[in-house]
Specification:
By secondary structure, the protein is mostly helical. It contains eleven helices and no strands.
């Protein structure tokens, strides 16, 4: 039996170091990866820290606020799954290395984006409808009992999810799949500021203007007003709609500019890391 060469039979710290250096260069050259390492722990700590503060300050409130947490979870799922459904449909083209072919075809960017928006609704309904049924069965919370208010909530959340999804798609086009992590996690960056589980007043005063600058904040405040005070706030929905118009316009503008940059840099044909 021939002995294996010494260079491959023994453990080599140099080879380990070479692989570590390879991964370090990959990490260092991709700012989206670096950002992800930092903000995930930060977002979790801030979100649950504010929730704990809210619970401690309003322990007697929850007896008459039944359903606020479940309602918040379900509405958050609409926001998150709407954006994720948009982004996954887009990433399917990146993974299959088909995005360059699409951009060179007669398909216009607006047509492409419209198809992605429709598919995000399809994906959302497939996932969300069974969950809302389970919420009725296990917890007695009927999201559909919100009536016409649910329509206003849904429209505003979907507009936000599309605006974010469009912009993230532009980032991936320009930066390659190294920016793919944003598609999965960028919405969680907004979670502490959109006040999903607690009112805006729980935030520090200096942080509250940033929260009110985000459309979903008005939706979650409107949901709590409806469940706790039994009052629908159309003013909040109008504010959210106005902000969504700005966000959506900005998302589309950013996507088109990033697409132009990707075409100039040749990124459409280089869909790797």
């Amino acid at each position: 039996m021939n002995a294996r060469p010494l260079s491959t039979a023994t453990f080599s710290p140099r080879r380990v170091a070479a692989m570590m250096l390879r991964y370090w260069y990959l990490l260092r050259s991709s700012w989206p990866r670096l950002v992800e390492l930092i903000y995930w722990p930060t977002v979790q700590m801030i979100t649950w820290g504010f929730l704990q503060l809210y619970v401690m300050q309003n322990a007697g409130l929850f007896a008459r606020a039944a359903g606020t947490f479940i309602g918040a979870v379900l509405l958050w799922d609409i926001l998150f799954r709407g954006q994720l459904g948009f982004s996954i449909s887009f990433l399917e083209e990146m993974w299959s290395r088909n995005i360059g072919n699409l951009m060179m075809s007669p398909l216009r960017p607006f047509e492409f984006v419209t198809a992605l928006m429709v598919m995000s609704i399809v994906r959302l309904l497939i996932g969300a409808v069974p969950v809302t049924v389970l919420a009725i069965i296990f917890f007695g919370f009927n999201l559909y009992g919100l009536g016409l208010a649910l329509v206003a909530f849904f429209i505003n959340l979907m507009l936000t999810s599309w605006a974010v999804g469009i912009f993230v798609s532009g980032l991936v086009l320009r930066n390659g799949l190294g920016a793919e992590n944003f598609a999965w996690s960028i919405m969680f960056l907004f979670m502490p500021l959109t006040c999903v589980y607690y009112p805006v007043t729980t935030l520090p005063v200096w942080l509250q203007p940033a929260a009110w600058a985000l459309p979903p904040t008005y939706v979650f405040e409107g949901m709590r007003a409806l469940l706790i005070e039994h009052a629908f706030r159309p003013d909040l929905m109008l504010y959210a709609l106005a902000l969504n118009a700005v966000f959506f316009t900005g998302g589309v503008f950013g996507f088109l500019k990033l697409l132009q940059s990707a075409r100039r840099q040749g990124s459409l044909m280089q869909t790797g890391e």
